[in-house]
Amino acid sequence: MSVPVAFLQRARAWLRARGAVSPSSLLLRSREARVGFLAWLLLLTAYLALLWPMLRDFSTYGFHDWDAHAAYRYITPLSLREYGEGPWWHPWLCGGVPAWGYVEGAPNLVSPYLPFYLWADMRTAMRVEVVGNGLIGLAGAYALGRRFTRSRALSAFFAALFVLNGRWALQTAVGHTWHLQYAITPWVFYCVERALDEKRLTFAGWAGALLAYLCYAGGIYPLPHTALFLLVYTVLCALFRCSFRPLVVVGVAGVCSLGLAAPKLLSVLDYMRGAPRLIESHERIGLAELWVMLTDPNQAYGARPVRVPAYNWHEWGLYVGTAGLAFIGFGLLFARGARGQALKLCGAACLLLGFGEFHENAPWRLLHRLPPFSSQHVPSRFHYLMLFFLGLASVTALGPRLDRWIARRAWLDLLLLLPLALFLRDLVQVNQVPFEQAFWMRAPDTIPVSARFEHRTNAPVSYVEPDWAAPMLLAMFANTGVIRCYGADQSLQPGAVAADAPGYRGSAFVADGAGKASVVEWSPNRATVEVEGARPGALVVYNMNYDSSWSADGSPALDSERRVAARLLPGRTRVQFSYFPRTLKYSLPLFFVSIILMVYARRIARRARELARWLAQELEARIANR
Predict the structure, then answer these.
(1) Could you tell me which residues come within 8 angstroms of residue 530 by beta carbon, excluding any fewer than 6 positions away?
(2) Is 576 exposed, middle or buried (0-12, 13-18, 19+ CB in 10 A)?
(3) Which residue of 190, 313, 382, 582 pairs with 354 in a disulfide if CB–CB is 3.0 to 4.6 A?
């Protein structure tokens, strides 16, 4: 017998002696595992069927906001691959805007999907991100549900309610990729639940890391919504349980999230000091509108089954059907206990916030006065989290009852897969419609690429069948910036002048006195300007929007009519303009210190306790000697 074969036989015998089994038998070794397998099979089948209109043809682009959100992401592979730089500045949008400092900018740099964006076609990469985030959301909701019940069918029902509803489908179909980041929300609460149950603050640190990821991923709504209700939930748990531990958990999670998110968060805050993105939000709806949003099967883009205050149906539709409505209603009525009550109150708060400005002292009107909620609108987005909290409250109410029945009749959980299958069938039939409408745009067969970057007033290329917004992604393919762009802050007043507009003086020019300036080297974050015939101290202007992180020859650049500028130094014929987020020199050390503290937190805590004991002993000894 050969040595490898003998080794394998001994290894198999060793594993069997310790109760180990093969992966296949491990999967199907019990009825519970078989039910879990079948529940996940139903979930995955329904999920792929829901996305099938998007997945059957990878040659198309999405309509509405897909182009702008693709442009937010394309700056990352373009900067890294073509120029060997970080995606700090986005010169193609509106005369130039921060890429890293914009809340939705470069969301794929710190992301598991970065390899797909680097090496795959943009259409493929964005589809992978959609599929991946949906799977993460399903797995997170399922795992969180399993914290409260043994029933695989009930946990799968909750996961389907959270991910496969009409709002998720509508928002995804129109390209609101920030909505995909709600997939992290159940994982945040899962980590908090484990931190509370197992009394392990390690999981609080993981919750903080997930919140930090929401910041990097451009979760302009998911991050503040999740953080707000994580705080509310833990405070309520602390009150109902008469314990400070939930407050410790949320405090640790908050500190960790701030430290880990610092590189992105501080850049965003620095940019928003000058562009606060304040948005009016006077929308309001009532119970009648919400009922239609939850139950009307007409979920097509542009449909209006009921009158809504503003925007299209993708901001309001929330189809879960009568079964989903009954499920969340059960949680609202019958959830009990510390966790059940806390979840129910969080869900009720989301319900009221989602109604908008229905009163002068309505919750949304009061919350909208505070940052970052003053930068948000369409309060109906809180109704998405209402499904999450009330659905989970139902799990806490139904779970113990089902567990007792399943313990006596193990086949009952298998039988519950039938209503789960019917619920999934209804969700797919209704919520598949937005995806059938969304991915129809095609790029021209050839896109002329400008050898030299320059700004134009309008996009130089369009889709074969154009949509309403300027095609920013295709303009990036053409290496042309667009002044009248879509996707940047609407209050932005570009300082850069388009090459086809009156008053254009070149990509660089001498603003005062004689002289000629031209850009001789260029990348998204740098521009080397050659100056001829200018006197020392002359103002040299680079035709790019100004931002406080621009520098010239190592010193802060000047603001010349909202364009980047610098004074020509004596004896110099070149000016090196460069962009690097100025907050990174402070935030990167904070990020690494946070990682070190989290990794060695247990050891640091142990040493701190030892030091405290030693100091106490020394103090007692000195008192005794006196």
Answers:
(1) 517, 518, 519, 520, 573, 574
(2) middle
(3) 382
What digits encode the pLDDT tens for the residues 217-238? 999 999 999 999 999 999 999 9
Q: How far apart are CA 211 and CA 206, in angstroms?
A: 9
CA angle, residues 152, 179, 210, in degrees to nearest 5: 70
Contact 510, 517 (CB under 8 A): yes
User: What tens digit of pLDDT does each residue of 44-67 get?
Assistant: 999 999 999 999 999 999 999 999
Whether the ω angle into residue 372 lies within 30 degrees of 0, i.e. cis, is yes
3-state secondary structure 332-357: HHHCCHHHHHHHHHHHHHHHHHHCEC
Indicate the domain borders of the chain.
26-179+289-439, 180-275+583-626, 508-579
Phi–psi pair at 6, nearest 5 degrees: -60, -40
Q: Are 571 and 240 in contact (CB under 8 A)?
A: no
**Rounded CA gap, 306 and 312, in Å?**
11
Q: Using alpha carbons, select from 215, 150, 160, 153 the residue that is nearest to residue 184.
A: 215
0.85 surpassed by pTM? yes
Residue 404, judged by CB atoms within 10 A of its CB (0-12, 13-18, 19+), counts as exposed
Q: How far is CA 548 from CA 245, 265, 468, 554, in A?
A: 42, 16, 33, 13
d(CA 456, CA 469): 16
